[in-house]
Amino acid sequence: xxxxxxxxxxxxxxxxxxxxxxxxxxxxxxxxxxxxxxxxxxxxxxxxxxxxxxxxxxxxxxxxxxxxxxxxxxxxxxxxxxxxxxxxxxxxxxxxxxxxxxxxxxxxxxxxxxxxxxxxxxxxxxxxxxxxxxxxxxxxxxxxxxxxxxxxxxxxxxxxxxxxxxxxxxxxxxxxxxxxxxxxxxxxxxxxxxxxxxxxxxxxxxxxxxxxxxxxxxxxxxxxxxxxxxxxxxxxxxxxxxxxxxxxxxxxxxxxxxxxxxxxxxxxxxxxxxxxxxxxxxxxxxxxxxxxxxxxxxxxxxxxxxxxxxxxxxxxxxxxxxxxxxxxxxxxxxxxxxxxxxxxxxxxxxxxxxxxxxxxxxxxxxxxxxxxxxxxxxxxxxxxxxxxxxxxxxxxxxxxxxxxxxxxxxxxxxxxxxxxxxxxxxxxxx
Length: 430
Ligand code: PLZ
Fold this sequence. Notes:
The protein is α/β, with parallel strands linked by helices and 430 residues long. It has a domain at 4-60 and 320-429: Aspartate Aminotransferase, domain 1 (Alpha-Beta Complex). It is built from 15 helices and 16 strands. It has helices spanning 4-14, 48-51, 60-72, 84-96, 111-126, 143-148, 152-156, 174-177, 181-195, 222-232, 284-287, 303-318, 321-342, 375-388, 412-429; strands at 27-31, 34-37, 42-45, 103-108, 130-134, 166-169, 201-206, 236-240, 264-267, 278-283, 346-352, 355-367, 370-373, 390-391, 393-395, 401-404. It has a 7-stranded mixed β-sheet with strand order 4-10-9-8-7-5-6, with helices on both faces. The chain binds ligand PLZ. Ligand PLZ binds at residues 50, 110-112, 115, 138-141, 207, 211-212, 240, 242-243, 268.
């Protein structure tokens, strides 16, 4: 097997520079919560491929389901010749997503594609143009979803012009805005009413816990107030659960923590244990406002990806991975809080379930947006963690958040080892 150094050299000659990788090592295999690189080094996985392999890498049921499906047929295109697996995934989505009303789903390949389609459907159903999004939001990298995404570097820089009729309002960010949930919602609603006008709003689109934007958990009461306003305005409330979905936050969907029943939910990532699959699920009357043939794509709901999704969902159910996410939080949060007590550079420990983060700042310094972010120390801690053998991601508008996204099947021993490496990374760097 070629070494990472050799592969890196080959890569530099053929892979576009715009596609970068976090670590310089190349993967040989991965299973459960451990990855092995081609140089024989083992890594503890606190990334899960950005919240994808919730059931673990190469999860046994997923491997078996994919193998069985690939031998039966690989692809027909659901728009040409339909198959049961697609229907079964939509049945699961109808049952698992919050809300006891009739639902329909449409399947796609990536998160961005699901978000684009949710926007199309909401506009079609309401006949209105405006889409409301929030500060720090991340919804994808296609042209429409870049308009929905907040952060310019690295996502948007030089890629405009972006799609129109997208309006950004203030997010509840407890560490930085000093507002309660209802106050933050009233502020955002004021912005919408003054700058967009409720009657023009097709949809309000929000991540119930923001992912790339910094694992921002809005203050309690913010989401329900935004959802209630959206309903009263006759607009569609879309929860982007692409990162938060499928047990990640300690329940099937993060919307459940505050009893939300979104009109539409976008899912991807964790749905299929590593195969590309995404969905828009929601109220039948909204979804079915679209004419036959109005939604689709060659690969959307590919049978292999659907088989993987059915096996992943079965795994989540049988192993109760929502409970596993809560247990990860019960172990990891006290360790992160102890770390914060030792390192004044950690301004806050936050998150839900197995979606946990620390925000890193310059101790004792405040500016107009609260504690001054420290992206340099954040990057240094992550780099040290990588050198120690921990796959660890950063995030945040200010690049100053370290996030934990372990696979939900991570063993106690792997979790403990990963947290110890993170503690070491902080004590040698921060
Ligand atoms: N919505 C909430 O988290 C993807 C992106 C990483 P795709 N997040 C990881 C990167 O740098 O590209 C994401 C998300 C939320 C939408 C998306 C988009 O999902 O499957 O990457 O298109």
